[in-house]
Amino acid sequence: MFSTWKPMWVVLSEDGIEFFKKKTDSSPKGMIPLKGSTFTSPCQDFGKRMFVVKLTTSKHQDHFFQASHLEERDAWVKDIKKAIQCLERGKRFSRKSTRKSIKLPSSINLGTLYLSMKDPDKGIREMKLEKDKKIFNHCFTGSCVIDWLLSNNSIRNRPEGLVLASALLNEGYFQPAGDASKSAAEGLAESSFLDHEDAFYYFADSGFFCEGNSSDDDAVLCEEFRGTVIKQGCLLKQGHRRKNWKVRKFVLREDPAYIHYYDPAGGEEPLGAIHLRGCVVTAVEDNPNGKKNEVEGNLFEIITANEVHYLLQAAASAERTEWIKAIQLVSRTGK
Questions:
Q1: Which among 49-53, 243-247, 248-252 has the top mean pLDDT?
Q2: Confidence class for position 97, pLDDT limits 50, 70, 90
Q3: Is the dihedral of CA 226, 231, 233, 238 positive or negative?
Q4: Cα(315)–Cα(7) distance, integer angstroms
Q5: How much is the pLDDT for 302?
């Protein structure tokens, strides 16, 4: 049994799990064979830790992993169990990508297409749409997406556009807004994407928000949520009272300049918000409040204009630098 948890870059291969100290490392620190292994999820061995899974090898060695959020854990569980089953049946394991499963043409680059859709002049126009006494800001309809694809000669017909739009949705470029599009995305319709005027969607990194007197998850009324999303991802955050560390999902917005943090397990209500206008953000080499070897490396600190300190940790040095630069830019330009 070990006493500390450390972030690792994990790679699932055909017959094992390789783990690296950093993503850029050329050789793994170790490898766990999957043949004859059993997998336990959820794992209850650590009462205060969420999203933990246990892999027990054929030699009865236990290995524990913790995901940053529920979706990540479930995706790993699905793939690892499939890899173990393939080994038992003498088959080769390979993950099915969205591109393969819906037979997208090899010439289609979803990332490039997404950037074209977001072009301020020639892309899909974001609108303010109203339905069921709610106002959806920075949105567009499913029909608008298919119309745009047709006008840009990206598809030959609307059924083909439905396949392409579904791929963009499945890969996270689009997000559903409202009951109709959410139900379809959850598999309650013939297609995950709807070519309808009353099916609303928004770009994943847009300034989407919804106004209305409703308990719908989209209902976001605060001014601080109206800024454009600049960056988002998971970081470790130190608590102010107990000085313990927890994984949080952070969303950085500009104009107004805010960073909100959430429980990665789910829920769209933030646990807290940091107003970044006039803040100072710097890299920190050592944890001034922690025990030795508790949390080390890739630390940075945000000090607000009101002199409130927030200590955070990124998974890698490059990621820390990206966050610092993004926060510095927003703090100077956002209101």
A1: 248-252
A2: very low
A3: negative
A4: 7
A5: 95
